[in-house]
Design a protein that fits this description.
Layout (H helix, E strand, L loop, with lengths): L1 E5 L8 E4 L10 E10 L1 H7 L13 E2 L3 E8 L11 E4 L2 E2 L6 H4 L12 E3 L3 E2 L6 E4 L4 E3 L11 H18 L8 E5 L3 H12 L3 E5 L6 H8 L3 E3 L3 H4 L6 E4 L4 H10 L5 E4 L13 H10 L3 E4 L5 H13 L2 H7 E6 L3 H5 L7 E5 L4
Parallel strand pairs: 8-9, 12-13, 12-15, 13-14, 15-16, 16-17, 18-19
Antiparallel strand pairs: 1-2, 1-4, 3-5, 3-10, 3-19, 5-6, 6-11, 7-8
Helix pairs in contact: 3-4, 3-9
The structure holds beta-D-glucopyranose (BGC).
Length: 350
């Protein structure tokens, strides 16, 4: 079968390869891949900046934002033939650490976890894949191809759970949230904020195109200026979805008193900026500001995300998936254009 593979840490090595059938060792459920979303992590992997091959191998099958249809499944399991499913990305470490032992692999303590399509385990960007029942999540069939948004939504569902838990350290009744970045993660974070009944603000650089419209059509407010201008006095919550260092620091300095900043974007590093650390320290302490990093998602977050997507307006989700590229033209999916939101590769178009 065909699969999009890459030699991790080797730029320009991505190729459409012929690989063998999915190994039985990956699990008894056989899934036909319908589509796979491309995100910043995939771009980092194909540009040679991130990723790990499976042990003893040179190439890794790419793809962690999946949507597929079950071809074969053992009786009595969570999914049956014909179901639309998404595969969870991370697998617990084999030790296991205290967190992986209780299935909170998103908080793995020793770094020995694996991730499909990213770290030491083939991904989902192949015509078929196999998976074990405990790592498969069923998607509302009404979502169809839009179920491909489940994995990025699980990442923001986890971020919101962290915000709630950290905010719950004292009386917590948030009203305003500001999201930095109107890419897929920012838009999905904003969607969950709107679903919670919050006053949602999104900051991005784009002055026109699809992103401002998507924000406004959610009932949220779109801004292109600074956080201080967008929400004078500071929002209760900031979900940082860009990883741009200046915005990260701006978020920490301008969240409201007692507020929570959740960092979900990954900075590339190497861009030192000057800050007044003393002033930042002073405002964070005197205003009880909390900053929390958030990565990955466990099954609970996938289930929260599946419910959130099922409640969302499908025509809005359909515009978030801004470009669909057939597998044979995979290069086009990796070349980003400024108006792209979520680009997906259709592996077996239905
Ligand atoms: C994925 C996460 C993963 C992270 C780090 C993200 O793109 O959505 O599941 O944990 O990359 O590898």
């Amino acid at each position: 079968m065909k699969a999009l593979t890459v030699i991790p840490l080797k730029a320009g090595s991505a190729a459409l390869s012929d690989v063998g059938d999915p190994p039985e060792s990956d699990g008894p459920i056989l899934v036909e891949t319908l589509a796979v979303g491309i995100c910043g992590t995939d771009i980092e992997i194909v540009t040679g900046a991130y990723g790990w091959p499976p042990p003893g191998r040179e190439r890794l099958v790419l793809g962690h934002e999946s949507l597929g249809r079950v071809l074969e499944a053992p009786a009595g399991g969570p999914a049956t033939k014909g179901d639309l499913v998404v595969g969870i990305v991370r697998r617990p470490d084999p030790v296991p650490c205290a967190n992986c032992a209780v299935l909170e692999w998103d908080f793995c303590r020793n770094g020995l976890y694996t991730e499909r399509g990213i770290k030491e385990h083939d991904g989902y960007l192949s015509e078929r894949y196999r998976i074990t029942p405990d790592f498969v999540v069923k998607v509302d069939p009404a979502l169809g191809i839009l179920g491909v948004l489940l994995e990025p939504t699980s990442v923001v569902a986890k971020a919101w759970e962290e915000v709630d838990r950290v905010g719950g350290r004292a009386h917590w009744d948030p009203r305003t949230v500001l999201v930095t970045g109107a890419g897929p993660i920012g838009l999905l974070a904003a969607l969950l904020g709107v679903q919670r009944g919050l006053d949602v603000h999104v900051i991005d650089q784009m002055t026109d195109g699809v992103k401002p419209d998507l924000v406004r059509d959610l009932g949220a407010t779109y801004h292109t200026g600074t956080i201080a201008d967008a929400v004078p006095g500071g929002p209760d919550v900031i979900i940082e979805c860009t990883g741009v260092s200046s915005l990260v620091l701006d978020a920490m300095s301008h969240v409201g008193t007692g507020g929570v900043v959740c960092l979900t974007g990954v900075s590339s590093g190497g861009h030192a900026i000057e800050i007044d650390e003393g002033a930042l320290n002073r405002s964070m302490v005197l205003e009880n500001v909390a900053v929390v990093g958030s990565v990955n998602a466990n099954r609970r977050h996938y289930e929260t995300a599946a419910a959130a997507l099922a409640r969302a307006d499908p025509s809005w989700l359909d515009r978030v998936v801004s470009r669909r590229v057939p597998l044979e033209r995979w290069q086009e999916a990796l070349n980003r254009s400024p108006d792209d939101v979520k680009v997906i590769i259709e592996v077996n178009p239905q």
